[in-house]
Amino acid sequence: MLNKKVDFRIILTFIVTILAFLLLIARLYPKSNHIQINNLEMHSGPSIDYPVSTKLKSNSKFKIITKKNNWSKINSNGKTGWVPTWLLNKKLDNYSKLSEATIVLDPGHGGTDAGALSIKGKYEKAYTMQLVNQVYKELKNSGANVILTRNNDQYVSLNERPQLAEKNHADLFLSFHFDSSDLNNSATGFTTYYYHNESSLALANTINQSLSNLPLTNRGVEFGDYLVIRDTTVPSVLLESGYINNSKDFKYIRNPNYQKQIAKDIKAGLNNYFNKK
Ligand SMILES: [Zn+2]
User: Fold this and answer.
1) How far, in Å, is the centroid of ligand 1 from the Cα of 109?
2) Do 118 and 173 share a domain, yes or no?
3) Cα 134 from Cα 171, distance rounded (Å)
4) How far is CA 7 from CA 16, 17, 183, in A?
5) Which range marks the domain in which residue 171 is found?
6) Per-residue exposure over 214-230, b if at least 16 CB sit within 10 Å of its own CB, e if not
7) Ligand 1 centre from 135 Cα, in Å?
8) How far is the CA of 144 from the centre of ligand 1 (A)?
9) Which residue among 31, 42, 48, 209 is the one 20 to 30 A from 269 at the CA level?
10) Which residues, 6+ apart, have CB-to-CB distance to 169 below 8 Å?
11) Coil, helix or strand for 26?
12) Do 208 and 130 belong to one domain?
């Protein structure tokens, strides 16, 4: 009996030693990977704002040197630079500047905070979620790193929303709401709000210009003192995409085709925004 016990211990020690050795080998010789995107841009620093130093051909080998925020410093064919971590090992045919962006989408309200009441007795929070789901799909397809402040009917405080953008080193933050007027059917149209001139006005203008295919009146770009776009250093815009207590606007607000059109227009606007940068 004693001998069997000793044998077992020796075997166990042997197995553990082999495993530790294999782990050490794996660390010393990291697996080399291949870029799957053609002309993937390498930047001189860990964000979209740094200049492009070179473009990598599809199938180029690379090794990760270090990581910062959402970006990885890599070496490929003797060249060193930064690329978005989520684009490494990713296949993407429609690669663009937008693919390199980290974007936080904020469906207004949620949970016990229902938002404004619609003309049909339904609440704003449901439609901001529907709209954001469409925008999410559209931006995800373009390869961007998209993060939501909520993905179901849950309460998220106002402070937490811009903080999520800061924490994730987002390139921009978009908050989605629907307007409401004191009297039903007394106002119509959509408005694009910004707070910070320097960081957000250009973003607001570009998005507003891209919302050119919507059936409602464009009320233009306005300054808006909203916490979610004010208490932040990330370029931020708040969109009021129609008056929820106007029967004509509400017909569109609840219509998936209207929501999809906004999503497409926003994608076009963000492409323009990042190409101009
Ligand atoms: Zn709202």
Assistant:
1) 6
2) yes
3) 20
4) 14, 15, 85
5) 97-276
6) bebeebebeebebebbb
7) 17
8) 25
9) 42
10) 47, 69, 70, 102
11) helix
12) yes
Q: Judge if 210 and 148 occupy the same domain.
A: yes
- State whether residue 101 is helix, strand or coil: coil
Q: Which amino acid is at 30?
A: P
The Å distance, Cα 272 to ligand 1 centre, comes to 27
> pLDDT (tens digit, 0 to 9) for every residue of the chain, 277 residues total?
556 666 778 888 888 888 888 877 766 655 558 999 999 999 999 999 999 999 999 999 999 999 999 999 999 999 999 999 999 989 998 999 999 999 999 999 999 999 999 988 899 999 999 999 999 999 999 999 999 999 999 999 999 999 999 999 999 999 999 999 999 999 999 999 999 999 999 999 999 999 988 999 999 999 999 999 999 999 999 999 999 999 999 999 999 999 999 999 999 999 999 998 8
Question: Looking at the 3D structure of the chain, how many domains does it have?
Answer: 3
Compute the distance from residue 168 Cα to the ligand 1 centre, in Å.
Answer: 24
The DSSP secondary structure of 70-98, one letter per residue, reads: TEEEEEETTEEEEEEGGGTT---SS--GG
CA distances from 64 to 22, 39, 168, 194, 226 (A): 20, 18, 20, 38, 40
Residue 217 belongs to a domain: yes
Q: What residues contact residue 185 under an 8 Å CB cut-off, 6+ apart?
A: 119, 245, 246, 247, 248
Which residues sit opposite 209 in a β-bridge? Answer: none
What gap in Å lies between CA 133 and CA 102, rounded to an integer?
16
pTM for the predicted model, two decimal places = 0.87
